[in-house]
Specification:
Layout (H helix, E strand, L loop, with lengths): L2 H15 L6 E5 L2 E6 L8 E6 L10 E3 L10 H18 L5 H10 L1 H4 L8 H11 L5 H11 L3 H10 L12 H11 L6
Antiparallel strand pairs: 1-2, 2-3, 3-4
Helix pairs in contact: 2-3
Organism: Orycteropus afer afer
InterPro entries: RWD_dom, RWDD4, UBQ-conjugating_enzyme/RWD
Pfam families: RWD
Length: 188
C-alpha cells in the first residue's frame, strides 16, 4: 500500500475510535491532538501528532508546544517526547497514532512523575522560548497593538469625549451619503 492509502485507512480508524471522545481533536486530516488526563488534572498534558507525506514509513512529528502544556517544564516535555520517540521507532512502518496516544495514556503517571507545576510568570517566558517560531511572532504583534504613540493618543482623545466614546452623530455624513446613493423610498 502507498503512504496515502495507509494514512486514509488510519484516519478512518482514528475517527471511528475517538468519535465522541472529548480528549481527541482532529486539527486537519494529517494532524491530531490528544489530551492525556482529565480536564483540571494538574498532571494532564496535550500531545500533537502530525503526519509527514511519507508517514508511516517515516516518523510523525510529535509536539507538546500547545498552550495547554505551559505549566510543564521543558525538561519534563523533553522526557515525554523522548519516550514517545522510542515508541515511534518500535512501530515505524505501521499506523501508530492510536498506539502513541494509548502508550501516553498508559504511562501518564510515569511520564509526569517529575512534574512540578511552574508558576505563570515563568511559564510565559518558557512557552515563548519553547514554542515554534510560527507562534512567537503573534504574541509580539498583540503587544504592539496595545501601545499607541502620543500623537495617536491625542488624535483619539480629540475624536472622543471624556468617557472615551465618539460623539453622537459622528458618522451621520456617511449614513446620509449612503442613503442618497441608494435612494430611499420616502423620496417617491
Amino acid at each position: 500500500m502507498s503512504a496515502n492509502e495507509d494514512q486514509e485507512m488510519e484516519l478512518e480508524a482514528l475517527r471511528s475510535i475517538y468519535e465522541g471522545d472529548e480528549s481527541f481533536r482532529e486539527l486537519s486530516p494529517v494532524s491530531f491532538q490528544y489530551r492525556i488526563g482529565e480536564n483540571g488534572d494538574p498532571k494532564a498534558f496535550l500531545i500533537e501528532v502530525s503526519w509527514t507525506e511519507t508517514y508511516p514509513q517515516t516518523p510523525p512529528i510529535i509536539s507538546m508546544n500547545a498552550f495547554f502544556n505551559n505549566t510543564i517544564s521543558s525538561a519534563v516535555k523533553q522526557s515525554i517526547l523522548a519516550k514517545l520517540q522510542e515508541a515511534v521507532e518500535a512501530n515505524l512502518g505501521t499506523a501508530m497514532t492510536y498506539t502513541l496516544f494509548e502508550y501516553a495514556k498508559d504511562n501518564k503517571e510515569q511520564f509526569m512523575e517529575n512534574h512540578h507545576p511552574i508558576n505563570s510568570t515563568t511559564s510565559i517566558s518558557n512557552s515563548i522560548s519553547v514554542e515554534t517560531p510560527n507562534t512567537a511572532p503573534s504574541s509580539k504583534k498583540k503587544d504592539k497593538k496595545e501601545q499607541l504613540s502620543k500623537a495617536q493618543k491625542r488624535k483619539l482623545a480629540d475624536k472622543t469625549d471624556h468617557k472615551g466614546e465618539l460623539p453622537r452623530g459622528w458618522n451621520w455624513v456617511d449614513v446620509v451619503k449612503h442613503l442618497s446613493k441608494t435612494g430611499s423610498k420616502d423620496d417617491e
